[in-house]
Design brief:
Blueprint lengths: L6 E8 L6 H9 L5 E8 L6 H11 L3 E3 L9 H11 L7 E5 L4 E2 L3 H11 L4 E4 L1 E4 L5 E4 L22 E2 L1 H13 L1 H4 L5 H11 L4 E4 L4 E4 L12 H12 L2 H13 L12 H6 L8 H17 L6
Parallel strand pairs: 1-2, 1-4, 2-3, 6-10, 7-11
Antiparallel strand pairs: 4-9, 5-11, 6-9, 7-8
Length: 302
């Protein structure tokens, strides 16, 4: 008995990726029991990424390079361009991809099986971070979801996201309708997860890793591993950047935590940390950041 493989649109954002993009695309094309179509948007690069992608797409019918439209000056804006400009209405699923990772062969097959078997609209998974010196570590984002976590964190790395058509279409509509305002959103994966949860879509975070998540000097975000990374992220939170992003996302979604007097009430947030972050250590850090920002006198508008 024959059957058609599920069609998956893979949206890949690239910038100066010549060192890694060939291995990334090869791992996507090697996915089992799905049919993939890759759409690439390249932020104007200096290392030949655009030329290589154009040549590759010319000889691979399921790989498409979108016309130049940058500079985007960040992965989020590049992904928003992909979501806006790619017609994925005829696909069964939509997936995001970075340019520098290595997908396991069953990454999409596993996601599709979960999305089809359960009442789930969005999927993400844990990853295995790896460094040039050979270090490897599991990045665990699969703690149980809590009431308001989507306002304050993503569902893991965006390169693990797979969306059902209704969720993808709704997110696309928001981006198209609010194109100018979404340019202020710095993290597309957090925004996507926040949109899904705040609009009644269900999400599953798979504890089984689906890919090797490359870490290098050019990562825009990367893994929160080590003291120096933790300090850098804490500074961003305390100087108001993180809370400003919370405000922007909440405003775009016209949604804030139920029962909150105002999401700018840091004391209220500190007292409700267990409803705002999934992992226990992150709940503690969240409380400290809220209290620290009160002492520092930082405020943000929403």
């Amino acid at each position: 008995m024959s059957f058609e493989l599920p069609e998956v649109a893979v949206l890949l954002a690239a910038y100066n990726g010549m060192s890694w993009i060939e291995e990334q695309i090869a791992s996507i094309l090697a996915q089992t029991n799905v049919h993939v179509s890759i759409y690439i948007s390249v932020d104007p690069s200096t290392d030949g990424t655009e030329g290589w992608c154009a040549e590759y797409a010319a000889t691979h019918p399921n790989v498409t390079l979108l016309p130049s439209a940058g500079p985007f000056k960040g992965a989020a804006r590049n992904f928003f361009r992909l979501i806006r400009d790619v017609d994925f209405s005829e696909f069964d699923f939509v997936s995001f991809s970075d340019q520098d990772d290595i997908w396991y062969p069953d990454k999409l097959e596993r996601a599709v099986a979960k999305l089809r078997s359960d009442d789930v609209d969005g999927y993400s998974s844990n990853v295995v971070a790896f460094w040039p010196d050979g270090r490897r570590t599991l990045v665990d984002k699969a703690q149980p979801q809590v009431q308001w976590d989507h306002f304050f964190e993503a569902a893991g790395p965006g390169c693990t996201y797979v969306l059902k058509p209704a969720l993808a279409a709704g997110f696309k509509k928001l981006i198209v309708n609010e194109w100018e305002r979404v340019q202020d959103v710095a993290l597309h994966d957090w925004f996507c997860y926040a949109y899904a949860r705040s609009h009644g879509f269900t999400w599953f975070i798979d504890p089984v890793p689906g890919m090797d998540y490359r870490q290098h000097a050019d990562n825009q975000v990367g893994v929160n591993a080590g003291f120096s990374t933790a300090i850098a992220r804490a500074k961003k939170a305390l100087n108001g950047w993180w809370f400003a992003q919370v405000s922007i996302v909440g405003s775009l979604l016209d949604s804030h935590p139920d029962g909150a007097p105002h999401t700018s009430s840091r004391l209220w947030l500190a007292l409700n940390a267990r409803k705002c972050r999934r992992r226990r250590r992150d709940q503690i850090a969240f409380t400290l950041v809220c209290v620290g920002s009160i002492l520092a006198g930082n405020r943000f508008k929403s």
